[in-house]
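Appendix B, record 7
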Amino acid sequence: MASRVLLILCVPSLFFFLAASTKEYPGQPKIFDVRNYGARADSQRDNAFAFTKAWNEACQWSYGRSTVYIPSGIFYLRQVTFSGPCKSSITFFIRGTLLAPRNPYAINQEEWILFKYVDNLTVTGGGLLDGQGSYSWPLNDCNKNTNCRTLAMNIGFAFVKSSKINGLRSINSKMGHFNLFSVEDFNITGVTITAPGDSPNTDGIKIGKSSHMQIYNVTIGTGDDCIAILDGTSNLDISDVRCGPGHGISVGSLGRYKEEKNVQGLTVRNSIINGTTDGLRIKTWAKSVSQISVSNFLYENIQMINVGNPIVIDQQYCPHGQCDSPGKYASHVQIKDVKYNNIWGTSTSKEALKMQCSKTFPCQDVELSNINLHYVGRDGLVTALCENVGGSIRGKIVPANCRINLFLPSNIITDSNSTLEDKMQGIFQLANTTQTQRFHQLPLWILWRLWNSRNILYFQRRHVPWETTLQLAQMDLQEWNEAVTPSHINSHGTTIRSHIPNWRRPTNGWVKCNVDGSFINGNIPGKGGWIVRDHNGRYEFAGQAIGNCIDNALECEFQALLMAMQHCWSKGYRRICFEGDNKEMFDLINGLKMHFGAFNWIRDILWWASKFEQTQFQWTNRQNNKPADILARTPLQHQFLFANHFWVPRVISFALHCDYTSSI
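Structure tokens (predicted):
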């Protein structure tokens, strides 16, 4: 009897325990396995209904984080949309493979898989999205048909906030892999995106009208842009990207539609771009209809490996012959405050640096710093093309022939239809703005150059174009600023100017020969001086020589360079960089200019260059060529015609010390 009473008392207690164990408590996570909703990993059955049902229940879970779980296996999906808002944080965990239909027309939305109106979403698991795009690529004619039918991208995120993608893989999209529209506070990391280099329009990550995003530690190789940044994007940080094949990291194209928004706050750093057609590209429509701006960009610490066009600003973009005349239209997109710092590597085209900015809205505040790009071909040297670019150059720049104006004050300055009075008024307006303190004295230098041009016209009957007058005034201002800029003491106790780029040591295994000429007049023989240092900046030897009587200063520079080359050859050096401060001479040697009067000099120099294993000819400013300049102007002792200085000449010891300490 007692045992029966005990059993009766225990049974209600057991029911109470079971009821309590099944009650949901706040903060309790829950997993929603798609198999429990009818999903099958047979790679044939459409699992969209099962996935959607699992998502809807997980999205309505209000007791803590929910997880939609896709296990290992191949799950076929025709198309699916996962909508919010959800009641709490949600994770979409993909361990297996999601397989798209082969038929591109089976998907009637822009993205095969779409997440929209969701906050606090995490997509992770290391799974694979297979777009099976190879069956669709032959149908893609968008490269020649402006009205082509767009195909679906692998996955999309629209109006999603405070979310992230981690460790996902995407292959063979039909037309693009990740599409992000109007997302905010969004991170992408550990992602791998793959498609053949010849697959059409398979962008890796496409971003539009989004803000506060981070993309880092990703590997992308496709047939289009690794990352495409469209209008309305702001505060985007990209780092540790391995890009290639593809079309590089691209901004644009911009300006085609009236409702477009500004693009601002882009950082791309610590990345490698390998085997792409383009590297870092900004492109705007020449025939633009919107007046927007592209601003506050930083490209830093990026290696280029056999890239077609490493650095590109293209404001003449007009594909498929939509502009009736090349160069007829000028983009209305304003590009400003763009910095390129420490970009190095190899280019498969001669024009490794190509900036073609708008004539109507020239690029402003473009800064090039420590650019070192080399052409891998054998049919010439690396070059640059820079048009309508305003900004500054710092440090070593290869290719060195990018002409960046120290200022481009307003459109009126570059407008060929405006009068000289209008141009002067625009210059004075610029000089009085707070943003351009270093240009306050520019009008004075322009007036000086105008007076100088007047004298040339009166006495020599030679007209100086106003563009040349402005460029010469800019050079005068730069030299003046260098002369009056306060100095500071570096860590070695040497006084150096704070803004003047230091003398740079040559590449490991090379030596550098700084050379200069000294010309007085045609009746006095021209002199030359040169100094050779190794890759550690250590002194090797120096030389001085008196040459023949020549006609002008340019020929004197050529003569000094020839004597230096012959001396270096006799010393047995075979990989050498020749550097000097006469820009015209180095532009002529590198094929950037033509001057038939210098033809014989250039022919002799190139003949001597062929006797070395490898040579480089590069320009530097006068400050960085000071030891050679001193030697060229210093008289030789005892009426000698040539001097080989095994020991450091006393006259250049201090300048040599400054170069060495500032290059550390």
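Remarks on this record: The CA atoms of residues 420 and 466 lie 8 Å apart. The chain has four domains: 28-134+151-214, 225-318+328-404, 416-484, 496-662.
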